[in-house]
Write a structure and sequence with these properties.
Distance between the termini: 30 Å
Oligomer: single chain
Radius of gyration: 30 Å
Structural class: alpha+beta
Helix content: 10-25%
Shape: elongated
């Protein structure tokens, strides 16, 4: 919702709470209102922003009422149905419409509005959480379906897909010499290999968490096995660290130059591999569009035909 709509929503919630005999005051963004009444405090946020809502849902607010410190209830008004909440009372358009009507009637009759902000209301106002799918290590989704669809420009339904990657960390050591020439093979790097098509990204995937993914999501299985990914990476590291050295030697009045190739030993290269899934939104409308559900960047090609993450 834009700033003007947020202001209107805040005023509508204010009128409902005041009709229920709460003393209401404005708060600074990202919060909107605080209301004290019936021995309790209510903190209100009107927002569609997923980051603001997530922070609001996770944060505990406390209020001092008549020298007694109590935990505040949290009331969220939002039009963003894709954001999940667990620890706040949640209102949508229907709730705002219903309570506004009751507040108007109470005002006409000269009565106070009976407003119970209990667990029952919180449970009824919140959408049923989606059933959890399999638990796996993955990069958390940061771009919800609504925002992803807007970026893609497609109106069709979105599918959340989790693409497997082999996240690696390799370390190389050792050295070789010839005469007075010494070549070292010290190196270390982190990156990831697409476990579907074997394409490599030199960038780290970001913070990973182990938790259930939505049951509606599609989890792709690795096509590139762990030992295959390790062998491919080890071969590439050896190629990158191989050095061609020209060695100068003098025999009497004659100077000889000899080229030698030095390669690291396979045993001196250690590789740690971990399977991690990266979320991707896929939309099929007039066009086929995929975008990274972490960064929101549109992929140049479909993931299952060899596209790399941008």
């Amino acid at each position: 919702m834009d700033s003007e709509m947020r202001d209107r929503a805040r005023e509508a919630v204010r009128r409902i709470l005041e009709a229920a005999s709460y003393e209401v005051e404005d708060l600074e963004r990202p919060l909107d209102l605080s209301a004290i009444g019936a021995g309790e405090c209510v903190i209100v946020q009107c927002s569609d922003n997923a980051g603001e809502i997530g922070q609001f849902d996770r944060t505990n607010y406390r209020c001092r009422i008549e020298e007694k410190e109590v935990t505040s209830r949290k009331l969220l008004f939002t039009l963003n149905d894709s954001v999940r909440t667990e620890h706040c009372i949640r209102w949508g358009i229907g709730d705002l419409e219903g309570f506004s009507g009751k507040a108007a009637i109470a005002s006409v009759l000269g009565q106070g509005l009976s407003l119970e902000l209990g667990l029952e209301l919180a449970a009824s106002a919140m959408p049923a959480p989606e059933e959890a799918g399999p638990e796996l290590p993955h990069v958390p989704v940061k771009v919800d379906e609504k925002r992803a669809r807007a970026i893609s420009g497609e109106s069709g339904a979105g599918i959340l897909r989790f693409i497997p990657y082999w996240r690696y960390h390799y370390r190389s050591s050792g050295q070789k010499g010839y005469g007075n020439q010494v070549v070292t093979f010290n190196a270390e790097k982190k990156g990831a290999i697409n476990a579907i098509n074997g394409a490599e990204t030199g960038e780290e995937l970001g913070q990973v968490q182990v938790s259930p993914v939505p049951i509606s999501a599609v989890v792709l299985q690795p096509m590139v096995k762990k030992d295959e990914a390790e062998e491919k990476l080890r071969t590439r590291v050896i190629e990158e660290l191989t050095q061609k050295v020209r060695i100068k030697q003098a025999k009497g009045d004659t100077i000889f130059y000899e080229e030698r190739i030095f390669k690291p030993e396979r045993k001196d290269i250690t590789i740690d591999l971990e399977l991690v899934h990266v979320p991707v939104w896929q939309f099929r409308g007039k066009k086929f569009v995929e975008l990274n559900a972490v960064t929101g960047v549109v992929l140049t090609e479909p993931m299952d035909t060899g596209a790399e993450l941008l």
